[in-house]
Specification:
The protein has eight helices and eight strands; from the N terminus they run H-E-H-E-H-E-H-E-H-E-H-E-H-E-H-E. It is an alpha/beta fold and about 230 residues long. The protein has one domain: Alpha-Beta Barrel (TIM Barrel). It has an eight-stranded parallel sheet with strand order 7-6-5-4-3-2-1-8. The model has no long low-confidence stretch (mean pLDDT about 95). Bound molecules: pyridoxal-5'-phosphate. Pyridoxal-5'-phosphate binds next to strand 8. This is Pyridoxal phosphate homeostasis protein. Its cofactor is pyridoxal 5'-phosphate.
């Protein structure tokens, strides 16, 4: 498992470096978040030991159990999936990063649950594809909410997060990523000082190279890391 995982991780890192270079950046400009939702604690530990210290989970329960089982290590946990109001209390304190800031209500609710003086880095999730099943702010609703979001002192908003449409393959994914970057560029002009939009969290196993070409600074990669591994996809 160790060897296979190392090979997979190397391959992903190489692809990140190539895409970063093609977009005039270096590999270190892009943060790889290993999405461990498909695998058990043992595999997650191995990934950490191989040097991937940014780990993402989309289900709160999995984040709780892995974070407890890996309390001897210090991974940075990224919450990348929808967080229901009744799960914030246990989840928010464990996080280094909240990607799925998908409603004003959630962003406000996190206030009661964040125990530290330093604000929690968070992203505004945008529903770029307009898919009704997806979470996130509709693009047009972000600008009007910026002042309210900026007033949330328990959060440090650092950018936008988005997912490509399920349909349309890689071409559509690239268009979605470009749209998210353009939205970010537009919002920057009207952004209060408290908010930074430098980070773009976009791109998954099948399209993270395209996301990087379009300006991603964080990619969330799961299945491709675990190919050929028991309990992986
Ligand atoms: C599962 C998931 C990923 C990773 O997807 P893969 O295609 O397995 O790389 C990325 N982002 C979110 C929000 C996810 O739920």
């Amino acid at each position: 498992m160790h060897m296979q995982l190392r090979e997979n991780l190397d391959r992903v890192r190489e692809k990140i470096a190539e895409a970063a270079k093609a977009s005039g950046r270096v590999a270190d400009d892009v943060c790889l978040i290993g999405v461990t939702k498909y695998v058990d604690v043992e595999t997650t530990r191995t990934l950490y030991e191989l040097g991937c210290h940014d780990l993402g989970e989309s289900r709160p329960q999995q984040l709780w159990s892995k974070s407890e089982a890996m309390a001897d290590l210090s991974p940075r946990w990224h919450m990348i999936g929808h967080l229901q109001r009744n799960k914030t209390k246990r989840t928010i304190p464990l996080l280094s990063f909240l990607h799925s800031g998908d409603s004003l209500r959630l962003l406000e609710a996190a206030k009661e649950d964040w125990p530290h003086a330093e604000p929690l880095p968070a992203l505004i999730e945008v529903n770029i594809s307009g898919d009704k099943a997806k979470h996130g702010f509709p693009p047009a609703e972000i600008a009007p909410a910026l002042r309210q979001i900026a007033a949330l002192s328990h959060l440090k908003i650092v950018g936008l997060m988005g997912m490509a449409s399920l349909e349309g393959g890689r071409d559509q994914a690239q268009r979605d990523f470009a749209a998210l970057r353009q939205l970010r560029d537009t919002l920057r002009n009207e952004c209060p000082d408290e908010i930074s939009l430098d980070e773009l969290s976009m791109g998954m196993s099948h399209d993270f190279d395209l996301a990087i070409l379009e300006g991603a600074t964080m990619v969330r990669v799961g299945s491709t890391l675990f190919e050929g591994i028991d309990g992986g996809h």
